[in-house]
C-alpha cells in the first residue's frame, strides 16, 4: 500500500474515532441519533471490544438472532426472541445503576403501552442483580417483561451484537427473528417511533 493511502486511512480512522469520542463524551447530538452515526459508533466500539468467549453466538445486523433463554423476575425461563415469534421485538438492555437507562425507561414504557397485543413487543433485559431490579421497579414500574442476566463477556448484550457492553443498548428484531437495527445510548422523548421508521 502506498504511504499516502496509509496516511489517508489513518487520518479517516482517527477522524471517526475522534467524532465518536466527542459524541460519546459530550452527549447525544443529531449525528449520534442518526442511523449513520449509530453505525459508525457501533463499528468503533466493536473494533475495540474483546472477542466473545468461544461458543457464544453473536447476532449480526441482517442475520437471525441465535435463540437464548433468560429468567424473568419470577424465575421462569424465557426464550429470546422465540417467545414472541411472529412479532417485532425491541430488546432494551439496562441496569438499575445506569442513569441514561433509567431516564429512558418511561419512554419505552409509553411506547410499549401504545403497541398493544399485536405491535412491537418491548422487553427489558437487566444486566443486574434480581434484588436491585425489583427495588428499582418498585419506584419506576414498567408494563413490559423484564428478564435478568449477569453482565459479562457472554451476556445477552453481546449475543445481540453489543460486544463492548455499553448501556443502554437496544436491538430491534423483526418478526422473522432477524436483527435489523441497533441503538447505543438512551432514547429521548418521542424518539422510539422515529427510530423504528
Automatic annotation (TrEMBL):
Alphabetized Pfam families for the sequence: Redoxin
GO MF terms, alphabetically ordered: oxidoreductase activity
Domain of life: Bacteria
Gene3D superfamilies named in the record: Glutaredoxin
InterPro entries: Redoxin, Thioredoxin-like_sf, Thioredoxin_domain, Thioredoxin_ResA/DsbE_sf
The Thioredoxin domain, residue ranges: 59-197
Record's protein name: TlpA family protein disulfide reductase
Organism: Agrilutibacter solisilvae
